[in-house]
Design goal:
The structure is a single chain. It contains four helices and eight strands. By secondary structure, it is of the alpha+beta class. The chain has one domain. An eight-stranded mixed β-sheet has the order 4-3-2-1-5-6-7-8, with helices on both faces. It is globular and about 45 Å long.
């Protein structure tokens, strides 16, 4: 049986001219053969930022870019979608790097649970590390995070891609 290692991290994205910080959450799953990084940002990001974020995630977590999944939330109710700028890109990539570093540096033996509904990632002693949920009807990640648990709300497309990558033959 292949040992899976998992680590999770989160960071606040402090954007210029915004009072409420947003969050990025990162989960690293590593079976020793094909590691996988999943990141979720709680608001939409300019499409121009996506490639840079994936490069940062790949670099910091030592995972090939093709095995990095990025899920972004809806536009903020106030202010609409973010406008791409060098300052915005830097703020997002800085937060992503911190969360990715925390995820990679906390990797420990883990097990995945749940084939339907939320997927819980526990360490070898059964303590929860992360909870992967669908954005449809799921509680907000901040509502379920506790005691080091990092919750990632994923879109259906990212959830399906995650399942494909986890189930892919190595």
């Amino acid at each position: 049986m292949t040992e899976i290692r998992a680590g999770a991290g989160r960071a606040r994205i402090v954007l210029p001219d915004e009072l409420d910080p947003h969050r990025v959450r990162v989960l690293v799953l590593d079976d020793g053969v094909e590691p996988l990084t999943v990141a979720a940002v709680d608001r939409s990001l300019p499409p121009q930022c996506h490639a840079g974020i994936c490069r940062v995630l790949a670099h910091v977590t030592h995972v090939p870019e093709g095995r990095v999944l990025l899920c972004v939330g809806p536009p903020a109710a106030a202010g609409g979608p973010l406008v791409a700028s060098e300052a915005v890109q830097h703020a997002i990539e800085d937060a992503v790097a911190w969360a990715a570093f925390a995820a990679r540096s906390t990797c420990r033996p883990a097990r995945l649970g749940g084939t339907t509904g939320p997927i819980q990632v526990d360490d070898a002693e059964g303590r929860p590390i992360a909870l992967l949920t669908s954005v449809d009807g799921a509680p907000a990640p901040d509502a379920v995070e506790r005691d080091g648990l990092v919750a990632l709300a994923l879109t259906a497309g990212v959830t399906a891609r995650l399942a494909d990558l986890v189930d892919a033959p190595h």
